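thought: fold this chain, then report.
action: predict
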Amino acid sequence: MIIEKKIEGFNNKLKFDQLNYPQCFCGLCPKFYWNMLNIESRGSGKIYTVCQMVKHYEKHKIMKDGIQYKLRTHLISPTIQANEIYQSLDSLDMEKDAHDDYNDQLLLGIINNIKEEKAEYDKFLPCKKHFEKFMKTPESKCEKAYNEEPEIFHLLQEYEYIHPKDFKHEPPKVNIIILDDLLGSDAFTKKTKSVLTNAMIKNRHMGICFAVLVQSIRAVPKRIRLNSSVFQLASFKNKK
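observation:
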């Protein structure tokens, strides 16, 4: 028999702010930001299923704090030409964001581009507060305000003192990176400093969802499996 006893001093309720990410308006699909492993045999429809999922996000609003976020899909697959279904995705620019060969520099380039977009928006966010403070400051006190907080004026000057409402600046997009049929490539190296593995570990901080499509789960490095939160297992030729 097991008897449960509460330990004195460990009954405090913890208060903390929960992470606030953009989410699909439907409230039923997997919440951002996820890493997905889609494991199926060849011809089982794994690409179709992933495209359906992305299409769902395209048709529903992605919201955070009353602001709508757009979706951007990236594709890395050596079999792009044989899978025309990817062309059905509105969030995938086949000329700009579809690549038929994986390498670490390509993935790092995609990630850096996403980071730059987010950094630019994070830099713009304080503008509204600073602009309102600037407008309320009498002209006679502007010099004193500048000496105390010059960074505010530098930021407003960079945006030419344009009212934030008149400055069109979209929030960073929610990014989905689809990695299809990359077993045997450098993407799944077992090296400790794997670019893909490290990116999937830090995906939430970068605002990225990874969808990895493979035919064998055993071929996927353990660290990637452990850092995946959505799994789809479909039919295989061998029922056993």
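thought: worth noting. Residues 23-123+171-233 form a domain with the Rossmann fold fold (CATH 3.40.50.300).
final: tokens above.
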